[in-house]
Amino acid sequence: MPHDPTHPSTSLTPHTPLARVRLAAEQAPPAVLRGVPLEPHEIPPGVQYVTLPDGRVTLAYTHPTQPKPEPAPAASQPVPAWAKTTALLAPTIGIGLHFAAPGLIAMAHALWATVALIAAGAFSLALLRGRRPKTPPITHHTHVTATGLFGRASNTINH
């Protein structure tokens, strides 16, 4: 049997809604098919005329559609005081930084030079301490006494 896409039994299964409509239309007596369309006041609520994919117009139950309410236009809100202040101060700060930039750069160079000087001093002190020879501890003599011009001297040693 050749494939005929217009025949309902070859293109649709009996379970699809479109196939049921076609099968019902094929099985309906010709008098019903040629019936006069209903007047708008005769159509029950929830039923509308719909156009099927094959171009036929028929009545069908439809889901009621709720009209979407139009969103209310957003009311404009006042600008907060902090935003106004920030907006006014931003150019002022920018201009101030523009004029202060050369001085800030010079201060940064001076600070780096100071850091380098301190580091060089610490490095040279470390080198000097490493070169200094170890000296014996110093002995302190206290209470040195001698009698006479050529007398022998005696003392007390404190470490």
What does this 3D model show about the protein?
- There is one protein chain.
- This protein is an alpha+beta fold and 159 residues long.
- The chain has 4 helices and 4 strands.
- A two-stranded antiparallel sheet has the order 1-2. Strands 3-4 form a two-stranded antiparallel sheet.
Question: What topology emerges from the helices and strands here?
Answer:
Layout: H1 8-11, H2 17-27, H3 30-33, E1 47-51, E2 57-61, H4 81-131, E3 140-146, E4 153-158
Antiparallel strand pairs: 1-2, 3-4
Helix content: 40-55%
Q: N-to-C terminal Cα separation, in Å?
A: 127 Å
Order of helices and strands: HHHEEHEE
- The 3D shape can be described as rod-shaped
Mean pLDDT equals: 76
Which segments are poorly predicted (pLDDT under 50) over 5 or more consecutive residues? none
Count of individual beta strands: 4
Number of helical segments with 4 or more residues: 4
Fraction in beta strands: 5-15%
Structural class based on helices, strands and sheet pairing = alpha+beta
The radius of gyration is 55 Å
Largest sheet: 2 strands, antiparallel
Strand numbers in spatial order across the main sheet: 1-2
In a nutshell, what does this entry contain?
The protein is α+β, with helices and mostly antiparallel strands and 159 residues long. 44% of the residues lie in helices and 14% in strands. It has helices spanning 8-11, 17-27, 30-33, 81-131, and strands at residues 47-51, 57-61, 140-146, 153-158.
